[in-house]
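Example 4.3 (complexes with small molecules)
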Amino acid sequence: MAELGFEVLGVDVDQSKIDSLSSGRVPFYEPGLEDVLTRNLAAGRLRFTTDYAQAAAFADVYFICVGTPQQATSNAADLRYVDAAVETLAPLLTRPSVVIGKSTVPVGTAARITAQFHALSPAGEAVEVGWSPEFLRESHGVEDTLNPNRIVVGTDSPRVEQVMREISASQIARGIPFLVTDLQTAELVKVAANAFLATKISFINAMAEVCEAVGADVIQLAEALSHDDRIGGKFLGPGLGFGGGCLPKDIRAFMARADELGVEPALSFLREVDAINQRRRARTIDIARGLIGGSFAGRTVGVLGAAFKPNSDDIRDSPALDVAATIGSLGARVTVYDPEALENAKRAYPQLNFAHTMVEAVRDAEVVLLLTEWAEFRSADPDELGKVVAEKRIVDGRNALDPDHWRAHGWTYRALGRP
Ligand code: UGA
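Answer. The structure with uridine-5'-diphosphate-glucuronic acid bound is encoded below.
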């Protein structure tokens, strides 16, 4: 928002994050974000605080961007952070204001929150609510925010629509589609998009299972499918499957909400999408175990990758760490390397060993698993790694390497869905 020219005050309850951001440090790894942060701090358009009252005195428009993780005890979304933001902000709004939700929420939440603002705010119904879901991908966050492929605004208020048109004017002028819907459709657009993306990944991973049964090659299959532009090649990458803070919890929360709405059968296929995805993790472990003779007990394993995807330090529901931890629990000595996610991984998985280079992670390994497709791993030299491993065996969990190249350098190469 500051980069687009607006005066912005960012609010968070975590003082350490506010301190870090105020001094120009992004408290997580996101390519390009530090430049945008420091440029806009220096321009005076961007400040940070933990003080809601300051925000309420300052702003005309509020964006709610807090997380909605999965509940610990069910598939449903945990709305405590959204609720806390609403309950803290609402009593402070004395002037007509526009509140735009960006958090991913179960359909129906925006209507409930609208009623809460009307009930709790001194400004009453002059607080108007819209919902504008966020479609950015981690690791492409800056680009996706400045140049989104669409802007969706759910509202029945002409004023909210007008404000969002003003805020998005430079993007609309560049031809970015701007769609206005009712609140519930906007909420659904977000979860439907993530459900579709998860389904596409699990579709190709289901094909990988079939390919393995008959000795076919899922990479060739995916490429041949991709030339049909009704299918397309994006999100058709077979391998270890999806993780992260979004797709897994969003499909589960969507199923939970469908259940509450009495349309559970409509989304029962997402259970299968989730199950296919989980099976990829188990299959990767099975392939590695097979390569070392059937048991991990007392064996040495090198793992390349900890983040849920490359160019991120996010380890939430990371398939790589899930696989690494399971292999560790089966008795192997597992050493993990990741270019950016090591600190987060160490905190969450103290039982694993961590190395600060790729070569150190695979030293003496009897099998190597590539589980996050960082560029550094894609371009790894099979001879360089071959010199330090105990046995030249690699499981390419992301179909990131050229099998012929690695086999030509003496490696036993295995991947999901390929002969
Ligand atoms: C996802 C969506 O792509 C965004 O549009 C959405 O805004 C975001 O969730 C969100 O809800 O906030 P993100 O979680 O950052 O974005 O990551 P993706 O790029 O979607 O990747 C998700 C997972 O799928 C990763 O673990 C990745 O390795 C895996 N994946 C992706 C595959 O296994 N195969 C593919 O072909 C593509």
